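Suppose you are handed a protein chain with no further information: no name, no annotation, nothing but its sequence. What can you learn? This example shows the usual starting point.
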Amino acid sequence: MILDLLFPNRCIHCNRIVSGDLIVCGICYSQIHFTHYDYFENNPVKEKCSLLFPVEHTYALIQFEEESLSRKIIHELKYRGREKTGKIIADWTTERLDFKNEKPDLMVTVPLHPRKLKKRGYNQLHLFTETLSKFYNIPFDHNLVERNNYSKAQALKDKKTRLETGSTFSVTKNISGKNILLIDDVFTTGNTISSIAWEILNAGDNKLSVLVMAMDA
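A reasonable first move is to predict its three-dimensional structure. Written in structure tokens, the prediction is:
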């Protein structure tokens, strides 16, 4: 209680005091550019994924624009130690995403290399995915895919480098006949998601859909 008085939680955009379970105030929330994509219809994520690998359905919650509040929110989650932001983004997702009668069988997260995980202290996708899993009653697996190579953050690479150098991933378990939802934070070139998608698709007779927090323009 004393710490809350001395160091109140503040909106990351305008610095207004907000309750501890929020990251932005009501006024700034209206400035977030939600995509309003339909999971079952064609959208920019599906158009880009379809050029790289067979994909069933796709969804992105927000637009990842330069100098935007959306970008700031993702950066708070990934680089500022605010892991709880993952739950907030998941809550926003559940308000907008309806799987109807085609729920995935399993949610799978993009892994961090153990070295990067140790440095950051958490995988920014885990709390997000676990919150979605509880809401939709869909199991998750954070260990189905592992990252074999250590590389610097995608945000620190130029576009050419992101296209030319992909991390190597591998599937750690036998899996076949599943409808898998692959989850990542930001869709940029699709290089990372594509690398993992092919590992999962080649592991067995699986189908793959994609869910990302944000879509880069």
